[in-house]
Amino acid sequence: MTSALLVDYGSGNLRSAAKALERAGFEVKVSSTPQDVETAQSIVIPGQGHFGQVMTEFKQSGFEGPIREALQEGLPILGICVGMQLLFEGSEESSMPGLGLLPGFLKKFPKGYAVPQMQWNTLQRVGDCPILEGLTPDAMAYFVHSYYVPEESGVQSGALTDYGVPFWSVVSQGNLHGTQFHPEKSQAVGLQILQNFRALVEAQAPVSR
After folding, report:
1. What is the pTM of this model?
2. Range 107-110 contact pairs with CB under 8 angstroms and sequence separation of 24 or more
3. So where's the catalytic machinery, residue-wise (predicted)?
4. Hey, which of 4, 167, 189, 194 would disulfide with 148, CB 3.0 to 4.6 Å?
5. How distant is the alpha carbon of residue 131 from its chain centre?
6. Of 81, 93, 129, 145, which is the active-site residue?
């Protein structure tokens, strides 16, 4: 059975994320042990809360080095919500740098719009984004966030969503993927995205570790 290592570094709703991954056909292992990355078939990085605090917890967990190595080796990785935000260079919310695996800095939504964005919103596919396969052009996901990845950040493929400004709601670069929204709260669309991620894992040649 296709497996996913759900990283427990002190942030994110692990229970709901694990259930969603199981519904998508994954065998889920929740782990706070960085060494488990060595035997992982895929990695899911959850996250919610303040960017700086979440990034601090992630760095203190010991997962950063092993996950960087796994990414270089081609292991499929999915970041969810703030777990996706951590993949970027940083955020206006904090002086703490991000992982810098993707280009761009997060900004806060402009004045005049309710913050956080808390609603269903559409996903406009851009470029080659395999985790969006099978979704209709009017597909919607459920968002709860105050900071966003600007369209001009340098991301090449994924999905754009508009909330006063266009922003990247899905990112896909090689074996690295992310969703700003929580798939587990996005019903059939979220399930399809997780199933697509599983299909990528299954199609991946075994990584020599």
Report:
1. 0.96
2. 107/147, 107/148, 107/150, 108/146, 108/147, 108/148, 109/146, 109/147, 109/148, 109/163, 109/164, 109/165, 110/164, 110/165
3. 81 (nucleophile), 182, 184
4. 167
5. 11
6. 81
Catalytic residue (one of 93, 129, 177, 184):
184
Domains of the chain: 3-203 (3.40.50.880)
Q: Is 81 a catalytic residue?
A: yes
Is residue 129 among the annotated active site residues?
A: no
**Beta strands per DSSP E along 109-173:** 117-122, 124-126, 140-145, 147-148, 158-162, 166-173
What rounded mean pLDDT belongs to the chain? Answer: 96
Residue 207 half-sphere exposure toward CB, CA atoms < 13 A: 21
What is the separation of C-alpha 22 from the centre of its chain, rounded to a whole number of angstroms?
17
- pLDDT band for position 206 (50/70/90)? low
Residue with tokens 């052009």: 137
Q: How does DSSP classify residue 181?
A: S
Cα 175 from Cα 172, distance rounded (Å):
7
Q: How far apart are CA 103 and CA 27, in angstroms?
A: 31
